[in-house]
Amino acid sequence: MLQATGAQPSPESGPIRVVIVDDHAVFADALALLLDREPRVEVVGVAASALEGVDLAVGCEADVVLMDVGLPRIDGLEGTRRLRKLRPEASVIILSGFDRDELRAEAERAGAADVLTKGFIHDTVVDAILDSVRGDNADDLSGRDGLTDRN
Asked: CA of 64: how far to CAs of 42, 101, 143, 145, in Å?
């Protein structure tokens, strides 16, 4: 995981506000349902493009944005760069179908807090969200093998 780049909510501030950005509606809806079971997390919006997701995250004052890397028009890395300029206190976690070292390096440069591989997301997404806002992050993503090291 990258160095902490986002908000530091306290227990008194309520649940962590999350926006999901993914152009696959079934995946986004399933992820929202999964997160709805976690009382420390509140899904405040779902978007199908990076542009829509950035606007939504700024408008909803999201603490964490789960951003798919492969989005139409502009990809999730460019969306991350834009969001970090507009709302630097928000953490961004990049979602990808594949775990590649070069993606981790690009995500770090864009300002992402972490990269999650979609195939492993079910058991680890809540921990990644909590870690991204608490600052429980390693210095960088290099050497990580997807989320398998979280198990």
From this structure: 10, 23, 24, 22
Cα–Cα distance measured from residue 44 to residue 87, given in angstroms and rounded to the nearest whole number: 16
Host domain of residue 117? 15-137
pLDDT value at residue 45: 97
What pTM, to 2 d.p., does this model score?
0.81
Number of structural domains the chain divides into: 1
**pLDDT tens digits, 75-98:** 999 999 999 999 999 999 999 988
77 in a domain, yes or no?
yes
Q: Is residue 109 part of a domain?
A: yes
